Amino acid sequence: MLVAAVAMLDSRAGALVDRSGTEPGGIGAGFYPFWSAALVLVCAGVVGYKAWTTRTPGPPAFEGRESVVAVLKLIVPMVVATFAILWLGFYIVSGLYMGLFARWIGRYSWLVTAALVVGLPAAIYASFELGFRVPLPKSFLYDSGLLPF
Amino acid sequence: MEFFNVLGDLAGGFGTALQPFNLFMLFIGVVLGLVVGVLPGLGGTSAVAILLPITVIIARTSPTSAVILLAGVYWGALFGGVVTSILFNIPGEPWSVVLLFDGFPLAKRKGKPGVALASSFFASFVGALLATVMFTFFARALAEVALSFGPPELFAVFIMSFATLIGLGAESPAKAVMMIGFGLLLAAIGFDTITGQPRLAFGQVALLSGISFVPVTIGLFGIGEILASAEESGIGFVERLSAKVGFKDLVETLGELRKRIWLVVATAVIGFWFGILPGHGATAGSFLGYGLARQWSTNRENFGKGEISGIMAPQASADAAAVGSLVPMIALGVPGSPTSAVIMAGLFIWGLTPGPQLFVEHHDFVWGLIASIYLGHLLTFIICIAAVPLLASIMRVPYAILTPFIVLISIIGAYSLNNSMLDAFITIVFGLIGYWLRKMKYPLAPLVVAIVLGDSTERTLRQSLIASGGNPGILVESPLAKVLVTLAIILLLLPLIRTIRGRRRTDIDSETVATAID
Lengths: 149, 518
Prior knowledge:
The complex is a heterodimer of chains A (149) and B (518).
Chain A: H1 2-18, H2 31-53, H3 64-104, H4 110-132, H5 140-143
Chain B: H1 2-17, H2 20-38, H3 44-61, H4 63-88, H5 99-108, H6 113-147, H7 151-169, H8 173-188, E1 190-191, E2 198-199, H9 205-208, H10 213-233, H11 247-259, H12 261-276, H13 282-296, H14 309-324, H15 326-331, H16 338-349, H17 357-361, H18 363-393, H19 399-418, H20 421-439, H21 444-467, H22 479-517
Antiparallel strand pairs in B: 1-2
Helix pairs in contact in B: 1-18, 2-4, 2-18, 3-4, 3-10, 3-16, 3-19, 4-5, 4-6, 4-16, 4-18, 5-6, 5-14, 6-11, 6-12, 6-14, 6-18, 7-8, 7-21, 7-22, 8-21, 10-19, 10-20, 12-13, 12-14, 13-14, 16-21, 19-20
């Protein structure tokens, strides 16, 4: 809680300095964000103060190492996959991402994994690219004409 | 006369809702809602958020079909969460937490899973039906009043909705206010709509057009919820009890329902009015219903051991509150629950302005939606009764497949809105923020409502001040604004009063203990 409060305080400080404040004859563009930021700051102060003065500490943020690992197992591939889309495009990444989970977490056979790796991007291609006509990011191989996705 | 007008409009609405494509959308929505409802760790709000970008495509031909789809998800999720609570003792949705108290005991200890399920389905259906009838007759009246609102009154309504979020629901008022402030700040990013000045963009061109609430909500709810549930239950999953609803169960449940019909009616009516208050919706409604049932019951000791009233009352109240939460969205442009906040975000994206003007400018849309609420609940009810074993089997879908699928769909959803990878990154970042906020017990409802209402709140405030030449007195000039602002202040003071009363009570308690020891 305290960490979040401090993070808020820290990030909001930028907004505070950045604001111009009020303008004569009414309020300017900066008025609203300034006071919103002030609201966050004051409340972060209150929450932080409460956390500081409460003698009994709350439960720890994570219950044991397993839960941290469980969350990281999700977060790391997710972040890596999102960045990889910029380079490999959506379809290749979605196949690899799905395959990773199927094999690593689900412990499926290679056959099932392969079916997922090919099947899911194909299904997404059929429904989004062809059906809804929503073009999704393509890989660098698409630009050079080597791959259709 | 008014009565017949409403009936005429409703008939027209059924004409719209019964069109084959709309029925199809309703079916898809309800089934999707049931699926996400059954699955713990994925809620109705997330599903609605993830679907938003897809509805943009549907809304190009008909916004009514799009809203029918999203509302269908809401109704499906309301019923679906129950199945998981009763059969697996895991809440599928926040609003089905209450059903753990009596639903699971009735299913397991008393060996009546069929009756437990049927009780909740019947109660949901009756509750929702009553609420929809009230919706049909009150929404327009409310909208007609709202049409006379100027910027100061609207500003007062927004302030009151924020105040309700703080005063009634939140465990920690400071955290709720903080979330509201954070949401308002996020809404303020980009060009100022009145003066055109760039705000909080920090020189980044990408931020000048502002942060769209779609990737933010997909992240907060979709990704955030998966992360939270991965931590709670691990990425793998265990299977529990399974059941179906037989004819005998239905007959027995109908008998039980007849005995409790007034309880169901009363909790539904109260739930509906409670749902209208901004920011609450089904979850708070379900707890309210359970509390009332327990308070009114002559055999309180049965609660927690499989009492049917403890299933029926919260269900009726939760469903009625969910329907009620759409009323202020349609009539005032203020969302009544997090899910309706996301649906309201959809309305904005489709180019509609939620609020009283909808009744005038998009008559077919509003009545089509209202008619679809009747149909949606009927459809959900029938599917539930017929296909409980199928629904329960959804729990067998391995998380190793489901989790990456949800992440990918969330990324597609965020990206496809503006064909921008920045939105996909925003979704991931807000997924992490949402997960952390959940963990630190910060309420997400005020944040979402503030993001959705931020612009309107600021616009009405500044329009009022421009009209009055900078005199803030205009905000409380009209009698209505005075009443609303007073209500808001009372709501804001509620937590303070509660704390003081709580403190006094603990003082008394410790005194009693002290005397007893002496």
